[in-house]
Write a structure and sequence with these properties.
mainly alpha; Glycolipid transfer protein, GLTP; globular; binds the ligand CCCCCCCCCCCCC/C=C/[C@@H](O)[C@H](COP(=O)(O)O)NC(=O)CCCCCCCCCCCCCCC
């Protein structure tokens, strides 16, 4: 019977490994895999409770903007982050000084996810090197303060740090990741992190080259 088939258990391993498939042989980043990685992360965050839904809403909105670009008539120009940047800049499709005619450019939208990827990188590294008595809320807050927080208004920072306090403790958090024992979680993080860092570095360099790191 269809309804007796157990639903496949969701594992964060597949999600984090998605970032490996973002990289092409010539070190470009595939938009589709990048966006898919975020989709999986948001799905994981949703499983942590509705207190995170204001974060999830914003992330879903940005994912949707990217998907709309990818499915649009110039979708082929969005195949990689490199081709997107070239296409949008060559065609004046990016608001460089203030949000005006192109408030939802791929470049500015992706930049928000890129900044969040730095938070993820820091948080995962803290989780990987944490000990039994480490607190997920503290690791998450520290990672946030060292990355995304500087781009957020006071009210968002307040709401985010309040939500972090609702994170499950380390043991329960690792269980939710559904990867296996603590040793397996640590090994998986060690495997996935170099790809996440690589994707972050390449994007950072791309945005730096084109002076896009402060897009409004
Ligand atoms: C695990 C707990 C989840 C912690 C999530 C940490 C990120 C906190 C971000 C708080 C964002 C609050 C919502 C509003 C954001 C916007 O103002 C702001 C600026 O956008 P705008 O220029 O269009 O106005 N948006 C952003 O900065 C983009 C935020 C994107 C957040 C994506 C978060 C996905 C989290 C996935 C968690 C996965 C955890 C895996 C750990 C093993």
């Amino acid at each position: 019977m269809a309804d007796s088939v157990p639903e496949e258990k969701f594992s964060l391993k597949e999600v984090l490994i998605t970032f490996q498939s973002c990289l092409t042989d010539n070190q470009e980043i595939l938009t589709d895999s990048y966006v898919n990685g975020w989709r999986g992360l948001v799905r994981f965050m949703n499983s942590l409770g509705s207190i995170f839904s204001f974060i999830s809403k914003d992330a879903v909105n940005k994912i949707q903007i990217m998907v709309t670009h990818q499915n649009g008539e110039n979708g082929d120009k969005y195949e990689t982050l490199q081709s997107m940047v070239k296409y949008e800049l060559d065609n004046n499709l990016v608001d460089l000084q203030r949000r005006a005619e192109h408030p939802e450019s791929g470049c500015r939208t992706l930049l928000r996810l890129h900044r969040a990827l730095r938070w993820l990188e820091l948080f995962l590294e803290k989780l990987r090197t944490s000990t039994e008595d480490s607190k997920t809320s503290v690791m998450c807050t520290d990672a946030y303060n060292d990355s995304l927080a500087q781009y957020h208004a006071w009210i968002i920072r307040k709401a985010a740090t309040m939500a972090f306090c609702a994170l499950p403790g380390r043991a329960a958090f690792f269980q939710t990741m559904n990867v296996g024992s603590t040793e397996q979680v640590v090994a998986m993080l060690g495997e996935a992190m170099p790809f996440i860092s690589k994707v972050y570095e390449i994007t950072e360099e791309l945005y730096k080259q084109h002076n896009l790191l402060e897009l409004p």
